[in-house]
Write a structure and sequence with these properties.
205 residues, 7-stranded antiparallel beta sheet, 5-stranded mixed beta sheet, 1 helix, 44% strand, globular, binds zinc ion
Length: 205
Amino acid sequence: MQSYERVDSQEDMDLLLASIRGFHDSMTKEIHLINRGYVRADKSMMMSHRFDTQILIQSQWKPFALELLFVGVRELCANDPGEYWGASGSVEIKSAPVEIRSICMKFDSALRVVSESLYYKVRTECLGAQAFLKSQVPTPDAVPSSLLEDKWRQCSACCDAWECEPTEIFSYCPSCGQLTELRPVDERFNLSPKPGPPVKSYTKR
Ligand SMILES: [Zn+2]
């Protein structure tokens, strides 16, 4: 999730709202909702059920397009595709008995989302009529993968490799089924040797 900002507090939420004029003159262009649970090809069910959703907002104000990523969606209600006058957002943290975060965003009375966490990313390039949310829905649970050569990338969880377009940052590993996030070469798997003690140089006298 390297390229996403995370909303952890009400201050973060207020920054998000201010970054695009409170979502005034904006609209929801696309919603991509995914369940992290699934039925395998052998008909067994993977019980990792959780709704995550990517929402692409287009605006007439800078930066013109934002992607919102709600993780652990508890509520999603969309009933009006029209333009928004504005949005509001709240971040509530209940600390007892375990910490539970509840993030709520409302766009007029047209769209309401409640989730456990929220990330966002500027997507200025996403103006126009076509569909933009074509790739896997990102998740903070993704394991790193690294580019080997051409279109080949390697999973850090099982070390298997597969072919995938380098422009797709998130891709499922066909061997272990983990969603992976492509990392820069110098960060791959943290296998680089740890820096040793500083090298001392001596000058013979
Ligand atoms: Zn794997």
